[in-house]
């Protein structure tokens, strides 16, 4: 078997199949970066999607990029706003008639510094968005019929920071650790109707993660055995697998996406 080699010696991702033909997904935090890449991968494999984020204009651009209203709709709002969540799920069902896949990708990290010095209100906001909203999105999707048909799946986008302590991003890491526990708990409670898994990426080259490598990308990259930082499409491919029927006997698991950096004890 041969592989196509592209820039930087990276093996190209395989062409997507049609694993999501007839299925409908909702992807949060999907106007750019990892969320948009996930939505693109799902649409490329036959899904119709609802994408959410805070700002309407980037969402409108995302819908156009995804192929327009025949395959994508958008719902603007805050992930921790109950009215937004209800409206987004209602819009998805109104447009496409069903819900099958939920990707909880929304995450914020407004706090940098020691966990021991964090402002409690800031920590509460991080947990509201990064953890509690994932639970609330799950409830909304179930109320709309998710799990009533075969193939229902939830994938939570966590972080390698949730697997161990990391300097400066303690609150964010703690929230992602909580999300990983929520993933396992929901997998137990929602089986067999809905599978629930997570991905835990290390540093992925997005605007969100810029502070983790900007101005020192070469040095950061040098710590990764595979010789590069992550790309949004790396995460999208893993999410698509976990959400597909190819992962039909997998639930409650976390797939670490780290370019090998964890082999030497790093956490990205």
From TrEMBL:
Top-level taxon of origin: Bacteria
- Give start-end of the signal peptide: none
One Pfam family name is adh_short_C2
Kindly give the PANTHER family that the UniProt entry links to this protein.
DEHYDROGENASE/REDUCTASE (SDR FAMILY) MEMBER 4, DEHYDROGENASE_REDUCTASE 4
Similarity section = Belongs to the short-chain dehydrogenases/reductases (SDR) family.
- Can you name this protein? SDR family oxidoreductase
The organism of origin for this protein:
Spongisporangium articulatum
């Amino acid at each position: 078997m041969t592989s196509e080699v592209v820039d930087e010696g990276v093996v190209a991702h395989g062409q997507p199949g049609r694993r999501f033909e007839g299925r409908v997904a909702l992807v949060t935090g999907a106007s750019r970066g990892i969320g948009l890449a996930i939505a693109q991968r799902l649409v490329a494999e036959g899904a119709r999607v609802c994408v959410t984020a805070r700002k309407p204009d980037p969402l409108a651009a995302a819908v156009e990029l995804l192929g327009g209203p025949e395959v994508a709709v958008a719902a603007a709002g805050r992930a921790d706003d109950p009215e937004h969540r209800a409206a987004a799920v209602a819009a998805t069902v109104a447009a496409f008639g069903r819900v099958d896949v939920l990707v909880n990708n929304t995450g914020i990290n407004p706090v940098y510094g020691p966990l021991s010095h964090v402002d409690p209100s800031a920590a509460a906001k991080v947990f509201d968005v990064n953890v509690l909203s994932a639970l609330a999105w799950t409830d909304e999707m179930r109320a709309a019929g998710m799990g009533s048909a075969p193939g229902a799946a939830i994938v939570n986008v966590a972080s390698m920071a949730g697997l161990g302590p990391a300097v400066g991003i303690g609150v964010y890491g703690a929230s992602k650790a909580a999300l990983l526990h929520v993933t396992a708990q929901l997998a137990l409670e929602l089986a067999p109707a809905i599978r629930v898994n997570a991905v835990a990426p290390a540093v992925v080259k997005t605007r969100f993660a810029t502070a983790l490598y900007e101005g020192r990308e070469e040095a950061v990259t040098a710590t990764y055995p595979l010789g590069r930082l992550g790309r949004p499409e790396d995460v999208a491919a893993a999410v698509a697998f976990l959400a597909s029927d190819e992962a039909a006997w997998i639930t409650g698991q976390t797939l670490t996406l780290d370019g090998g950096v964890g082999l030497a004890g790093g956490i990205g």
